[in-house]
Amino acid sequence: MAKADNKATASGVTRLVARLARALREREKLTQTALGEKLGYTGSAISALETCAQPPSDEMLVALEQTMGGGLGVFEEAREWVRLEKFPQHFQDFALLEEQALTLCLFETQAIYGLFQTESYARALIAGGFPVLSDQRVEELVGARMARAAIFDREPVALIELILDEAALRRGIGSEAIMRGQYRRLAELAQRRNVSVQVLPLDVGFSGEHAGMRGGMYLVETPKHERLVYMETQGESMLLSAPPKVSMYSQRYAKIRAQAMGPRESLVFIEKLAGENP
User: Fold this and answer.
1) Strand, coil or helix: what is 236?
2) Considering all CA atoms of the chain, what is the largest pairwise distance in Å, rounded to the nearest integer?
3) Cα angle at 254 between 252 and 255, to 5 degrees?
4) Which of left, alpha, beta for 259 (phi over 0: left; psi -120 to 50: alpha)?
5) Which range is most confident: 13-22, 125-134, 191-200?
6) Residue 131, preceding bond cis, omega within 30 degrees?
């Protein structure tokens, strides 16, 4: 009964990988233990794969491709889709857009944006949320979030601009040590040539204007030069493509950027938080 339940709740890609791996194993007349030995896993891990009790890790898919893929590239192709399905459902479409984006213009008000997070910060943030998640799910989400950082070194280079509300920088997550590490990581990324980080001060409203009061937004330019806007609130999301809407949010983002500290001033501010700039 457990096996049927697992297959019923597993994603389509996970079920397809499980079915293909089992068919190839049986064609080779290998037991689960024997296949596990070839791949560097236990027989129990192969059983968990085939019954969909546990989605395959990226490393397992690489091993399957090298050992049983037959040069077809099926398991290699599955890596991206299995990874995407580890994200919350409301984020999956944007995760693919983010991965392929030419430009990302990000305004975040609640926490450090996921691409810029350290592993410790991400784990504390995810584990401390609600509803409460199992340790296994926390680690799955942390791993998926860390994998997103590959965009920083991607070819062609993506241009990434992050505006952080000062409140997101000062909001304590995990511990003071975790926050210091997070500030150092943010400062390090801010000095990359394809990255810009700006801080929107808490007192910006004293000037009589505060364009960021309605919350965060993410603007993305796709490889086809389409411009989209993505927003999240309370685990729900919205992806906008209508040009008038995209134009309005782009103008609001430009106003927020104008009200933020400049990149150099912001870097000094972040370094002070990290304790590296007296």
Assistant:
1) strand
2) 74
3) 65
4) alpha
5) 191-200
6) yes
Environment class of 246 (CB within 10 Å of its CB; exposed 0-12, middle 13-18, buried 19+):
middle
Considering only CA atoms, give the Rg of the chain: 22
Q: Are strands 236-240 and 227-233 parallel, antiparallel or unpaired?
A: antiparallel
The reported pLDDT for the residue numbered 249 is: 96
CA-CA distance, 45 to 36, in Å (whole number)? 7
Alpha carbon distances (Å) from 219 to 14, 22, 196: 30, 42, 14
> Tokens in use for 207?
């000037």
Angle at 90 between CA 87 and CA 92, to 5 degrees: 45
Provide the pLDDT for residue 72.
80
Q: How far, in Å, CA of 170 to CA of 202, rounded?
A: 10
Dist CA 122 CA 147 (whole Å):
12
Convert the pLDDT of each residue in 203-221 to its tens digit. Answer: 999 988 899 999 999 999 9
Mean pLDDT taken over the chain: 89
Structure tokens at 80: 């991206």
pTM: 0.74
